[in-house]
Structure formats: structure tokens, C-alpha cells
Specification:
This protein is mainly beta. It has helices at 329-343, 438-449, and strands at residues 22-32, 38-43, 49-53, 58-63, 76-82, 89-95, 105-110, 115-119, 127-129, 136-141, 146-151, 155-160, 163-169, 175-180, 186-191, 195-200, 203-209, 215-220, 226-230, 234-238, 244-249, 255-260, 267-271, 275-279, 285-290, 296-301, 307-311, 315-322, 348-349, 352-353, 372-377, 380-387, 390-399, 406-408, 411-413, 415-420, 428-432. It is globular.
């Protein structure tokens, strides 16, 4: 029994023989090795962390022997860089050990439509799985040699022992996530068509409707219900019969990933504006971790209770509740300063005043096919185009020049803005004059550069 604290609320934490005092999550480690966005993370049965990136590679990381004074960036060591993809590596999954492969296998999925298979510690692929006709967006590995893949070609493929077993068709837009449901032959898929589908032995069994924008993430809970997250900023809990049990609105920005916390109670969701939402078992927000990146693409829970996330700044970060695992104070303070600097970034881009632009809530309204929109997303100006029933991110306004006049393509503009459209390529130039209609400027930009209307992951 606990007595006292009259008139005040207080928080309970606990201590056990295995962990020190448990508190809020703090930065523990930074995994720095990619040169572009970290799009997926997972852990294999040997305790390695695997990250995949828009730099066309995946990295296998091993935990180093460290002390409480070891810098955050030296606590995990890259032991292998997995190569072979010719475009973004969007997905990674660890296949369980088998008699043939006692250490298990790694699978990576890329925008080159390939799934590559790697042995642990070997940097060259030992097999490739071909069949998708567009970028592979997601992977999920299960028991008995099962691997699911989702693609921008709108299909889900089932692979058994590295051989194609079934092609699941029904979605009307890119498939963003897949999950294996407890029970033989039951699979889930989430799509840009705003639906979730349940597949039973290769046949569509049920369609779950309720989200109002692209569904980006799925995770099955221990009680056999499942969660979904969406560009509509919500997380929904479903039972297998199709009933939506709960809806949580976590933010005003897109949500990209879901993962179950290590204890099986509560979950983690990540999204835009550098947000990592740590939720308890009742759906209450326990903590919001802010990192200095625009997009937090992915998350996973580690066996020791830590959380790992990957983001648009090319880093993966690990957060812990165990004070013995916290990064040195200097590293934690540096991240806090970086977050603050991002929040207080300049409020004017060229002559486009950010407070005059719509926020992410503007993306909740349905547009017309081909319509473009500039959005103020936490101080970052993003360019979107409405395509295939949802707003697709085209680029980010990076910089502006505030000299008197600038020349672009033989014309003089008040400002010339850099728009980052594709990783690894120079930004495109956008000329803007005072008084220009942002919608018209964006529309003309899309048309001038003939930006492809394909999966948003290729932009």
C-alpha cells in the first residue's frame, strides 16, 4: 500500500533485479551509416539490428561492448552492408532459423521490384525472388518458411521456402504493409486504397473499411485483434470479424508505422513532424518522443524493451527506459537542442509565409486528380499532388534566396527555391514572385518537370 501525496497525482515506476529504475524513454544509441532515409528496421534471432535505406543498401548492426560513457554513435557497430538493389530499399525482414540456415536469413525489398535474400554476415545476396512488377514496399516473415511481400503493383505475394506460392489481388492502390495473422493461411494487407484486407489460403475473406486515407501500418496484438495506422492521422483497433473497436487520433500528421511494445502491452506509432508515440495498453499516450527529423518512417521493439526508430535524416535511434542504458548526457542534450532548432526554424520560405499556408489538416480534404498543394508541416514547406485518391508527397522546399532578383530559365524571380524531389539527384529550381498564387506555382512546377504519377515511394 502507498500512502501520502494528498491532493497531488504521482507516477509509479518500478525496479527489479534485471533493470535499473524505469522512467521515460531516453536516447540510448544512434546508428549512423546510411546516406539517406532509413525506411525499415528489424532484429534477427541473434540480436543483430538490420536497417534498410533509400541509399539502396541495408546494414547489419551488432551491439558493441559499451559503458555509460560510450558515445551514442559508438554503441552499435555496422558489421555488414547488404548490397544488390538498384533503388531504394523499403523493407527488411528476418526469417527464422531452419535446419538449412541455422542462423536464419534476411530479406530486403526494394523499389527495383526485387526481393533479395542474404545469409547473416554475407554482403552479397544468395537468392532473389522475382515476381512483383513495381517496387516492393513491405515484408513480413513467419514460421515454416513463410514470407509475405506487398508492392506498389497493388498485389501481395506469398513465398514458401523462397518459392512463390500465391499472388493476392484485390487492392486498388499500392500495398503499404502486410502482416501474418495467427492461424494457418491468414494474412492482412493495408493499402493506399484506404482499405485493409484479410486473406485466407489465398482468397480474399474480408475488407475492412473505416480509414479516410491511405493505410500505412499494421500490427497484430496478442489478443488476436489488430491495429492499423493511416495518413488520416488515426490508429484503429479491429477484431477479425471486421468490427472497429477503437479509434485514436494521435496527431495532425501522417502516421507511418506500428510496433508492439516488448511486454505485449501497448504499442509504438511513428509519423511526420519527428513524432514517436509511445502508448500504453489502454490506448493512452504514455510519452511522445521528438527526434530532429521530418519523417519517422519505421519502428520496432527490441527484446530488452528498448525502441528503435528510423527516420528521414538517415539515422536509426534507440531509446531506452533503463537509466543504465541512457546515452551520455551530452548526446541527449544535443538531440534536445536539434529538436528545438527544428521547431524554431525560419518561418518564411522565400516570400511564402508559413502562417499563410495550410497545415497537415489541409490533406484531410479530398482533392481533384492532379491538384497540387503546398503544406506547412511543422515549419517545413512540402509539395503534394492528389493522385489515385490520396495526397502524395512530391518534394520538400529546402531553401530560398532573398536577394533582390534571381534568374531562372531566362526569367527574373523574386526568389528561387530548391525543391528536393529525388534522393541522390540535385534539387529542382522553382521560381517564385511576390504575390504568386502558391497553388498555381505548384501546378506549373509539376507540369514543367513532368513528375511521374507512380508510387510515391519513387519520388
Amino acid at each position: 500500500r502507498l500512502y501520502g501525496h494528498e491532493g497531488e497525482s504521482f507516477k509509479l515506476s518500478y525496479y527489479n533485479e534485471y533493470k535499473s529504475y524505469l522512467s521515460m524513454y531516453e536516447l540510448s544509441a544512434v546508428l549512423s551509416g546510411h546516406s539517406a532515409d532509413v525506411r525499415a528496421v528489424c532484429m534477427d534471432t541473434k540480436g543483430h539490428v538490420i536497417t534498410s535505406s533509400r541509399d539502396n543498401t541495408a546494414i547489419v548492426w551488432e551491439k558493441s561492448k559499451s559503458t555509460d560513457t560510450t558515445p551514442a554513435g559508438e554503441r552499435w557497430i555496422a558489421i555488414a552492408r547488404l548490397k544488390g538493389h538498384t533503388s531504394f530499399v523499403n523493407a527488411v525482414a528476418a526469417l527464422p532459423p531452419t535446419d538449412e540456415f541455422p542462423d536464419g536469413l534476411l530479406a530486403t525489398g526494394g523499389m527495383d521490384s526485387k526481393i533479395l535474400i542474404f545469409c547473416i554476415g554475407i554482403e552479397e545476396a544468395v537468392a532473389d525472388l522475382m515476381g512483383h512488377t513495381d517496387g516492393v514496399t513491405c515484408l513480413s516473415a513467419g514460421m515454416f518458411g513463410t514470407l509475405l511481400s506487398g508492392s506498389a503493383d497493388k498485389t501481395v505475394r506469398v513465398w514458401l521456402d523462397l518459392k512463390s506460392s500465391a499472388v493476392l489481388k484485390g487492392h486498388q492502390a499500392p500495398v503499404w504493409d502486410v502482416a501474418i495473422y495467427p492461424g494457418e493461411g491468414l494474412y492482412l494487407s493495408a493499402s493506399g486504397d484506404k482499405t485493409i484486407r484479410l486473406w485466407d489460403n489465398g482468397e480474399e475473406r474480408r475488407v475492412y473499411r473505416g480509414h479516410t486515407d491511405a493505410v500505412r501500418g499494421l500490427v497484430v496484438l496478442p489478443d488476436n485483434t489488430f491495429l492499423s495506422c493511416s495518413n488520416d492521422c488515426s490508429v484503429k483497433q479491429w477484431d477479425i470479424t471486421g468490427t472497429c473497436l477503437h479509434t485514436l487520433t494521435l496527431s495532425s500528421s501522417f502516421l507511418y508505422s506500428l510496433s508492439i511494445r516488448e511486454n505485449g502491452v501497448g504499442f509504438v506509432s511513428t509519423g511526420e513532424n519527428g513524432n514517436v508515440f509511445v502508448m500504453d495498453g489502454t490506448g493512452t499516450t504514455e510519452q511522445v518522443i521528438q527526434i530532429p527529423a521530418v519523417s519517422v518512417w519505421c519502428s520496432a521493439s527490441l527484446p530488452d524493451g528498448d525502441i528503435i526508430v528510423g527516420s528521414s535524416d538517415g539515422l536509426a535511434r534507440i531509446f531506452s527506459q533503463d537509466s543504465l542504458s541512457f546515452a551520455p548526457m551530452a548526446d541527449r542534450e544535443l538531440m534536445t537542442e536539434q529538436v528545438a532548432a527544428q521547431k524554431h526554424s525560419k518561418q518564411v520560405v522565400g516570400d511564402l509565409q508559413l502562417d499563410k499556408l495550410q497545415g497537415p489538416e489541409g490533406l484531410h480534404r479530398t482533392g481533384s486528380e492532379g491538384q497540387t498543394l503546398m503544406i506547412n508541416n511543422g515549419g517545413t514547406v512540402e509539395l503534394y499532388k492528389f493522385s489515385s485518391g490520396s495526397w502524395q508527397k512530391v518534394g520538400v522546399v529546402q531553401d530560398a534566396y532573398d536577394k533582390d532578383k534571381h534568374e531562372l530559365d531566362g526569367q527574373r524571380f523574386d526568389h528561387v527555391i530548391d525543391v528536393d524531389v529525388e534522393d541522390g539527384k540535385p534539387p529542382l529550381k522553382l521560381g517564385v514572385n511576390k504575390g504568386d498564387d502558391p497553388w498555381v506555382v505548384a501546378q506549373n512546377f509539376i507540369g514543367k518537370h513532368s513528375l511521374p504519377q507512380v508510387s510515391p515511394l519513387s519520388l
